[in-house]
Amino acid sequence: MTLATVLSLFGLAMVAGWTPGPNNALVATSGAQFGFRRTFPHVAGIGIGFPIMMFCVSFGLGAIFQQSVFVREALRVIGIVVLLWFAWKVAAAGKPNAEGGRGRPFTFLESASFQWINPKGWIMAISISSQFADPAKPLMSSMIIASIFVFVGFTSAAGWTLFGTAMQRWLTTDMRANAFNWTMATMLLLSVFLIASSRLTT
Length: 202
Known about the structure:
The chain is an all-alpha fold. 79% of the residues lie in helices and 0% in strands.
C-alpha cells in the first residue's frame, strides 16, 4: 500500500468507527450504567475482535461470504433479532445501576463474538476489504487494514464509553435516564433499519 492509500483507509476507518452504530450505542449505554473501568472489557472486545474479523475478511473470508446467499441472509436475520433485543434492553435500562437494567457489562469474549453477528460490521468489512485489500499482497494488506482498525476500534469505543460515563452525573432522574436510554435505543433501531434495507455485498 502507498502512503496515500493508507491515509485514505485511515480516514474512512475513522468515519466508520466513530459514527453512531450498534457498538458505539452499546458501549455508551454501558459506560453510563457501569462506568469506564467495568466497560473496558467490552471496549477491548471491539478493539481486538473487529480487527481480527477484518483481517479474516480481507484475507479471503469475504469472497466466500459473498458467494452464499443463505449465509448472508441468515446473518442479517440473526443480527437484526439480536439488535432488536439489545434495543429493548437499552430502552428499559433505567438509571445507572438500576435493578431493571442489564445486570453486568459485556465480557471481552461476548463483545468480540458480537462482531461476527453484527451486520453493520460485515458491511464495513466487505466494503473496505474490497477497496483496500491487495490481491498481490493479501497478507500484508490485510495486516495493515486490521492494524488500522485496532487503533480506530479502541479509540472510538473508548470515546463513546467516556461519553456515556460523563452522562452519569446528568442521569440522576428517571426522565433524564429514559431520554438517554431511548436515544441509544433509537440509534440501535436506526442501525436495524439501515441493515434491513441494505445488502451485505460490495
